């Protein structure tokens, strides 16, 4: 079980639990222990916080909403033993099974297909407080999403209704310009041409505004990026995923010919993708580790303060040579 507490506004939070429940073949004691732990975790959430519980419950809750008021009108199938455990817990804690409150086709409600009977079942569920059901705007299965599992992806859309915090009136901070674009010779020359038209003899404010406007028009704003291995290799990863996705979409067609051969191709593409992703990830982390160790060396020199002039005479050249590292080839004659 994993727990995530996400801040909303006005000091309000939404607590999300991601779970994986025991299967029907599991020991009854394990099933009972799981639901006791889940019940205790849900009770520990403050009453003024939003609550979402989602995951593979391995439970079929059925469609009998007259007997169980935690269900909506759009359930599927029959209830099983794990489903009874779940329905009882929901009734005690005032929770609702969000999957059963939206009218969709059966293929957009079934999250797992039985390998032998080929019958669809709703076992990947989302629970929320009955009083907050109005926050849940949509919930359906995305059949086209390739998740490398026999379960289908379930997408839920929420619109949490909390009071928005009023912003205090103040000076608006200008957005940062993407000066990294100046590394490109064409962009750098274009920026010089734009700056040559700025009037330098006027007031400082007009010059500053003209320079900023030229930077926005030519360089654009700096985008906030979350550095990770898949961001650095985005183009290559997307190309590999597109190839596998194309094969997967063909497999969704029940009338396609040569399905066995296509499944072998798909498994080979999936194995190749995983191998390539592991290679990209290992390479990225290795480079990050080298970069991190380099910064640590510089930081140690930055924080070193010599106690006497003799120490400064010895350490400072080493410090600045490490930080700058100007290559000798830059000063060599042609």
UniProtKB/TrEMBL annotation:
GO terms for molecular function: catalytic activity. It comes from Octopus bimaculoides. Residues 15-154 form the Endonuclease/exonuclease/phosphatase domain. This is Endonuclease/exonuclease/phosphatase domain-containing protein. InterPro entries: Endo/exonu/phosph_ase_sf, Endo/exonuclease/phosphatase, Swc5/CFDP1/2. Gene3D superfamilies: Endonuclease/exonuclease/phosphatase. It holds the Pfam family Exo_endo_phos_2. It comes from the Eukaryota.
């Amino acid at each position: 079980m994993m727990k995530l507490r996400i801040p909303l506004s006005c000091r309000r939070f939404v607590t999300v639990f991601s779970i994986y429940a025991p299967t029907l073949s599991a020991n009854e004691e394990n099933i009972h222990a799981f639901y006791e732990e889940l019940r205790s975790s849900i009770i520990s959430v403050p009453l003024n916080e939003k609550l979402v519980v989602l995951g593979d419950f391995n439970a079929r809750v059925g469609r009998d909403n007259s007997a169980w008021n935690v269900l909506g009108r759009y359930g599927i199938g029959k209830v099983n033993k794990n489903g009874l455990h779940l329905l009882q817990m929901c009734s005690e804690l005032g929770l609702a099974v969000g999957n059963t409150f939206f009218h969709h086709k059966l293929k957009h409600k079934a999250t797992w297909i039985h390998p032998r009977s080929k019958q669809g079942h709703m076992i990947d569920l989302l629970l929320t407080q009955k009083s907050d059901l109005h926050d849940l705007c949509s919930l359906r299965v995305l059949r086209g999403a390739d998740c490398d599992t026999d379960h289908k992806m379930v997408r839920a859309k929420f619109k949490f209704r909390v009071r928005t915090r009023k912003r205090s009136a103040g000076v608006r901070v200008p957005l940062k310009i993407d000066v990294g674009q100046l590394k490109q010779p064409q962009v750098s020359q274009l920026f010089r041409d734009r700056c040559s038209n700025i009037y330098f003899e006027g007031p400082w404010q007009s010059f500053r505004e003209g320079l900023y406007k030229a930077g926005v028009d030519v360089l654009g704003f700096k985008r906030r990026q979350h550095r990770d291995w898949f961001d650095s290799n985005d183009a290559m990863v997307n190309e590999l995923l597109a190839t596998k996705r194309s094969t997967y979409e063909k497999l969704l067609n029940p009338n396609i010919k040569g399905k066995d051969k296509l499944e072998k191709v798909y498994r080979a593409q999936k194995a190749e993708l995983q191998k390539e992703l592991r290679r990209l990830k290992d390479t990225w982390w290795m480079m990050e580790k080298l970069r991190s160790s380099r910064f640590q060396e510089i930081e140690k020199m930055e924080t070193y303060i010599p106690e006497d002039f003799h120490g400064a005479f010895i350490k400072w050249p080493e410090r600045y040579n490490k930080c700058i590292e100007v290559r000798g080839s830059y000063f060599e004659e042609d």
